[in-house]
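Hi, here's the filled form for the chain we discussed.

Project: internal
Contact: R.S.
Residues: 124
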Amino acid sequence: MTLFSPTVLEHFRRPRNHRRLEAPDVAQEAYNPVCGDRIRLELRVGDGVIVEAAFRGDGCALSIAAASLLTELLRGRTLEAAAAFGDAELLAALDATVPATRLACALLPLRALHDGLAAYGAGA
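And the returned structure, exactly as it came back:
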């Protein structure tokens, strides 16, 4: 495993759900001032379940890939399960060795998720 694993490269080159949702229930932006990465995560919720997830943003391969992968993993999860989604789970899904200096990049979409769910009233 390396920083640019096949999973990271695939999701960076062909990001899933890279679009804007119309009238999202949850919309939260996270920004990393150290490198300038910015990710906006949007969710549509129905009966306590995430029915649609999308993102927009500018960032490095790692933050874009993490946002793409996270949106795929969130669909169908309850708000409680999404709020409990942790760093280790996203890092494992990326299938990459992420050095400490790049953790903020990889976890930026997850920060947007947790902040957005907290603002929505479904945070952990």
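Let me know if anything looks off before we file it.
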